[in-house]
Specification:
By secondary structure, this protein is α/β, with parallel strands linked by helices. It is built from 9 helices and 13 strands. This is SAVED domain-containing protein.
Length: 368
Amino acid sequence: MTVSSENPFPKVEVVPSGRSSSSDAGLKELFTRGDLWIGTGGAFTVAFAVEAVQSFVTGDPLWGWWSLALLAAGIGVGLWGWWLRGRFRSSQPVGVVMQVANPWRDSGEGDQRESNAREFGRKKCVLVAVTKIVFPEDRRTALLLVDQLVSHTRALKQVMENLSPGASRVELMPIMPLHAGFRAGARLGYTHSREVMVHSVKASDHQNPVFPAVPLRVPQHGAAAPSDLPLEADKQPRTIDGADPRRVALALDLQNRGEEFVEPVMEACRQYDFGSLVLVRTTTGWLPENQETFSGIVDTICDAWRQASLPEGAHTEQRAIFLSGPVAIAVALGARLATANHNSWTAFTFDSDNGSYEPFPSTPRVRK
């Protein structure tokens, strides 16, 4: 992918579906999507309806009754075909690749992720679209562009659902920095007419580089997270000396970096005046890459945030989240935690170039 800063506004591209490109897939769909049976049943119905009428008119009741039986069979085949068509359409998702390209930092990984997402969409979805922006060097315009990207994604999702009314769900494939992913999730929200499944998109070209990770929608029945999740959460917030305790930060160490993660987070909290810190951390450096684990992590983090003993007045103050780990988790957390008050959240991600945390939206330091 070639990126340019000349036109920073979101670009939209429709990707041709390749689901039936192979002869085996095309032959299988010929029998499973229902069109063949609808056509065959319709032909039998018309032909033997005429035969039945002619037989009774010409005085051949035996063949007339046989024609009526074959007419009933034709109707049955046609109804079977319509049922297959409904089932086939309801099993076909639509795909949206939502990308924030960062050509100054991704070292070509963004191209590989985009390629993997496109290929997954072509194979699995009946319709696929890509919408993307280039993350600007001027961070003052970045918030506006990410919000415009989400607006384009919402409109595109609606159009694709109208074009494929029987689609089972929307496969959302985000490719972006973590803090942009949190903001995008907050603006997307979790209330949608169809299920929106956030996928994790890896830069690897090995088997299954894209997999369903976590739904945006909040679980309806309060399903419990797996008991064996490698995750621990603070019950009591940590206090940052000299900062406002009513301003609370949530820090996610999802790579088990320990003090290497905590120390720069606490320093950033001091600089940006967040006086209370809720830490959630994994006990292993590697997360099993499956929907059960990712969904369980999101549910557990949301529960930890809701159950934390926050200082009085904290719910009306600015909040922060320090992100690590997969983008899919950041997007889902944005939707679950920040939809109702997205402008009250500042998302931080680690900038390896200068060894500090970068806020989004851009926020001045209170102290150095």
